[in-house]
Amino acid sequence: MLRVGINGYGTIGKRVADAVRAQPDMDVCGVAKVSPDYVAVGAVEAGYDLYAVDDERIDEFRAIDIDVAGTVDDLVEQSDVVIDATPSGVGAQNRPLYERHDTPAIFQGGEDATVAEVSFNARVNYDEAADADYVRVVSCNTTGLSRLVAPLEDAYGIEKVRATLIRRGGDPNQTGRGPINDTVPNPVSIPSHHGPDVQTIFPDLDIDTIGLKVPTTMMHVHAINVSLENPPEDDEHVRNLLGNEDRLVMIPDFAGLDGAGTLKDFAADAGRPRADIWENCIWEGSVTIQGNDLYCMQAIHQESDVVPENIDALRSLSGHLSGPESRSLTNETLGIGFSRLNGRVAKRLDTQPAD
Amino acid sequence: MLRVGINGYGTIGKRVADAVRAQPDMDVCGVAKVSPDYVAVGAVEAGYDLYAVDDERIDEFRAIDIDVAGTVDDLVEQSDVVIDATPSGVGAQNRPLYERHDTPAIFQGGEDATVAEVSFNARVNYDEAADADYVRVVSCNTTGLSRLVAPLEDAYGIEKVRATLIRRGGDPNQTGRGPINDTVPNPVSIPSHHGPDVQTIFPDLDIDTIGLKVPTTMMHVHAINVSLENPPEDDEHVRNLLGNEDRLVMIPDFAGLDGAGTLKDFAADAGRPRADIWENCIWEGSVTIQGNDLYCMQAIHQESDVVPENIDALRSLSGHLSGPESRSLTNETLGIGFSRLNGRVAKRLDTQPAD
């Protein structure tokens, strides 16, 4: 049983904690949190042992009647591995703490790639983390791009990727971040940092990215062009290729899933925790071949698509399952895949090939 | 076992179906739906028998491989009671169908009050529906206002209510509705229709309301003034009064629950289905007595606050439980109340009376 400590219990940390708890081969030994707010109340409701950053903070939690099991230092000491889900930049500051305890750690994509020996995507380079002590799961956008790039590279070869990332302004609980009524080039410099980040997963990939921010809290949306070396005959070939990937979901035209609002509503109807969408959502109707160029649009749930990747990173690092075994177990325990939706797509493609 | 048919499987219908299924004394005998879209896929995933409006629609469902159990007519025939959760105005058109089958029905607040014999709120007039065949559960906003008005009327007597309703533009899956960047008086005439609607529950209440719409899909927010006949000495008296109501939740200052975004995130963390918030969320820090005037602000989750009211309306109409018994059973089976949050409030008020 792998004992996992979660340092940082925010958007990502609370989801990874629940996902760890859903695994048969892992336990959550506690979660560390800075502020005594509603998320801390939620951690206690969920039954996690709560750790504070220092003794002063322990008192703040006790003032609102929340028991604290100790400090972050105690949590790291008890953990076989730590998931660092602290805010961007804080992870790097925490690394000496993990080194002091000789405890391996998994960082998030908000950290610079230099924080760890390996930047990680479960589909692409699972085995590379096996010998590492420090692994970085790449960001939500980089994860989303990597999952799409991998099968296209395998099947057709890629000449170049050009992607426009229309990014959500903040998470649902960050309504103060903005933008509130604007479309903001962010960063204004091109290529944005996302392209180089994808290259931490695919070192030889030619990719340029453009980033913007818009006033939504729901999902990122990517408008993607991939120039292929050996393009297939038609769009359908691509749809079937992508539809067979376990962390890509093809969104069929019939379903009325016309944006992030309906996608999140669908995930809520499916009974998913927090209406999370761990998969890339690729609009079937957008998948288009024009000569050598493939185009498509996909929605990426910024709060949750890295969650299964963190679980697989834990197993790669601890070394007790192979990549396919780990991904399969993660998918099964979390309930990844909207099988009925994909089933419908497959049927539709079978019966209406000329669509 | 009360056999309940759900006619209209949208925002309200799908939630009421799940709530009926959670009751020990009711069964869902099927749901009727117009469009073969993602919500229909969700109904099948949830295991409900699906009924179509007519034979032509049955074929549309079968084209996407969804089995249909029959038409709405068949569903009504099999039901002891029907929940009509069709779009506003359609319910009234459906009433002759229910009459033809001699099947009692519960309509939603989008219908004119004349659609039914009784307009219903579980806290206020549970017993009035006992002799009725047709009951109308009032709208989300009217439900939210009624729950707040009831204890204030009981404890202090009400001279007059003045409420400004800052309404969400649409539900999360209705992103096309707007407004997208505006605050729109809606309706521009004052008082808005909400005041008279509250009077269907409190016939003698003096109440004026103003309505507006803003670009959010998350919750309505009410800014409320109640002129009291016998005001209490201080704000704390009101907070304790309201905090003891089972479908009101006092939002403590410490929690960082600063708006609908954080409230929904908290509900998601609590593992609630669809992150629903069945209770009025009243910001503790806004509860203020100025002379005879009470002020406060509350958030109302438009998608779900009427769900427990529909369940209670079913029991009132069928007559096998008293109001307190039904409300208690509904609260327990759905998991109503953020007890830990309210516990914190109570403790805080006990220990810091001068706050």
Automatic annotation (TrEMBL), chains A, B:
State whether keyword Isomerase applies.
Answer: no
What are the subcellular locations of this protein? Cytoplasm
Q: Which PROSITE patterns match?
A: GAPDH
Give all residue intervals belonging to the Glyceraldehyde 3-phosphate dehydrogenase NAD(P) binding domain.
2-140
Q: Which residues bind NAD(+)?
A: 11-12, 110, 168, 302
For this protein, the record's SUPFAM superfamilies field holds: Glyceraldehyde-3-phosphate dehydrogenase-like, C-terminal domain (SSF55347), NAD(P)-binding Rossmann-fold domains (SSF51735)
What is one process in the GO biological process aspect for this record?
glycolytic process
Main location per the UniProt record: cytoplasm
Enumerate the SMART domains for this protein: Gp_dh_N
Q: Name one GO cellular component term.
A: cytoplasm
Q: How does it assemble?
A: Homotetramer.
Q: What is this protein called?
A: Glyceraldehyde-3-phosphate dehydrogenase
Upper classification of the source organism reads: Archaea, Methanobacteriati, Methanobacteriota, Stenosarchaea group, Halobacteria
Quote the gene name from the UniProt entry.
gap
